[in-house]
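Hey L., structure's done. Input below.
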Amino acid sequence: MRRLNSILLLSALSLSPALAADPAPKFLSHPPIRPLPTANARPLADGPKLFVDATKGLDTGDGSESKPWKSLQHAVKKLKAGDTLYLRGGTYYEHVDVKVSGTSDKPITIRSYPKELAIIDGGLREFFETPEKAWEPCPDGAEGEFRSVKTYTDVGSAGEGTNLLGNFGDSMIPLQGYKFLGDLRSSNIYWDVTVKTGPQSNIYCGPGIHHDLTTGRIHVRLAHTKMPYLPAEDNYQGITDPRKIPLILAGHQGGSPLSLQEVRHVRLQDLVVRGSRGPTVEVIGSEGIEFDGLTVYGGSTCFVVKETVGLRVLNTACRGIAAPWTFRGSLKYRAIESRLFSTGGWQPSGQESRDFEFAYSEFTDSVDGVFIGNVKRVRFHHNLLDNVTDDGIFLTAATAYDGVTPGGDIHIYQNRISRCLTSFAFGVGHGRQKVIADGVQTGAGVYIYRNVFDFRRPVWYHQPKSEKEAQEVTSKGRFGGDHGSPAWEPMFIYHNTIIADDVPRYTYGINGFGGAMGKGTKRRIFNNIVLQLDLLPGNVLPPSTTELQTDGNLFWSDKQGKSVQGAGEHFAKFRASKAFTESKDKYPPGWGANDLFADPKFLKFDANWKVNLDLGLQAGSPAIDAGVPIPQEWLDPVRDQDKGKPDIGALPLDAKAWNIGARGRLTMMGEATTQESLPQLPALKFTPRPSVQKIVKSAAIVEGYPAFDVPLIHYTLRRHGVPVESSVRAWLEPKKYENYSLVALNGNLLRAKVTHDKFTPDELKELDAYLKKGGVFVLTLTGRELFQTAEGLKFLAEVTGILPPVRGPGKTVTPAVLAPEHRWVKHLDPKIAETWLPTLSKQPGAPLAKLKG
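Output:
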């Protein structure tokens, strides 16, 4: 009966909007921390209509409303330009690969039927549909531990890492994906682990699951959390028997529940996508893609988008894998370091993404948030970013191998950012930020304006190490920060309102305003309100030689502000300094000449994060008409509402506040509200990728060890639109070369422990035939070992004219610069190349000699 009640409850919440409106639903697990998805009443669209129904459909049908298909994967293969596929309400336990394309005037649409909610679930359905049959008590397990009745050897493996992720089926609260069985069984609640990422000691991180690779069993434990450093409402106190509650569990098997690869002009609307260990939604090499009205429950990420042009995410909720009791370390070190939206790996691909828009959407509950630094032209507006325990919006634009920095021209405006450890993050890490000729390459700049930052609520970052420590969490969010001291992207920061509570260390106003000003970046900071709750705002500015302009900002301290006699006292030291006079070379009035230190007099303010704010300005606020003019070319959506001189802060006097979040469900202050009509946005503008001659055959890269040049070869091929396949530490038989337009070899196959590491005479004949048919074989310096036979050396000399390297006195080969005008070397004198290029007679790895310029 309990199981039946839970299933009925879930159906009410997920499928029936009328029942979902129950004012006081009861949850067997934990009350939801985010709104559960409900059906949308979006009417049927014009044009051809096709239907799929997981409950009543048959794949032998014709896809009509009376004879719908059953399988979503079967249905999407039938779609043509202009079609709309309607999913009747229910759950589709599938991994769907969309490989059909529409056109700009006839897109393909995949959506829920009006007033019904369709769910795409990549998980193991028995744990949701028949939990009473799926679990049994675990012999010799911890108190409350259960294991799966069946063994699972086909869920996909991350080795010794986290192999499963999941959620409570009633509330969609995430389950901890335990890396170590010892953590699942532990009673310890303090961060006293001896090795952050190892099993030497253990900590219980809340209700969760673990897949035992040895036995194939899935283990679950829903024990209560008893963390005295958390508010009572954030501890888990729900049901502990998994046989009495539906769970959503998913592994790697099958890939993403929803994948779009090499498609154009496809729209997805009003769907729920869940049940993934990896990316829940994957978009690769596509163009003109729109997600509108989705709720995506993340695995390692909610979205991964690579090599895509023209992407819009609208009215969409991205929910991460952090539960109310989850700390940063619980995921980063004991499970996985999850993200909400990823735009690819650290290395440049040669087909970087561009023209993205994120609007009226939500990004919540994760270690990391939205990574968009490598995307060209991004508009991120009217969104909620909340409860991110590390990098909120990652902005570093990596430098490609040809010196191009694709990222930048990013506009972040009219958002609410709260409970986020580092709102704007920069880093080197595994990425690339190269020094080229005249300095560090940065992107085209980031514009941050008309946002509200509310850092009053603690971030679940620092977890007490013992009961002897203070039993409270005091970690607070900050505006900006970095990893590894990279160059920060150029930032234009204006008309924001920031409520801060971090410690401003040797900075200007707030951490992230005045720091990291070296390495060729620049920053403009105008007309912002910064209110520090406890300490005084920082009043230390960077050296006057940096590319900074700042003015018209208002600073205040809620606790200590009245002890300071206005701006004159707070900024007196700097304004009396030589640096202030020197700063006029960068900004004629001088840095901060019109800055104020005064109470902004908000309409409603409280330091308690549980109290809602109204950050509009009272009549008589010192922020009114106190800002400095902003260049007209800088975008400002509410410039026309600001009467008279510019008001300081995000919201001008008497201006209408804007809504944010999915379907505009929140005010900019974070309060729930009702939006009479959904926001209407103009069509996303983007330039399609240039048409290129279709390459029938892919290129192949044979990778030995070490293979330093593989990323460069891969990048060059992808830059020209060539598909690439890789053979990593594996032999590619020459008779298969004919399947490829190009074969590139890099690295030593012998060192890579490849048993076949030299061409035989017959294989040399096959290679020769491949070349004579027009094939291309790329051989780098590391890789010539393939020809280290008498026949091979002779073949290499005949085909290329290149003799084997000779060594010894008087036997050198002088190198030359083949592309002297390339930006990486054009400042060097090619006439004396031998002085700065290593000759072949030098020992491998010899350092470069004298540089000119």
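Residues 382 and 660 are 4 Å apart (CA to CA). The two ends are 81 Å apart (CA to CA).

-- N.
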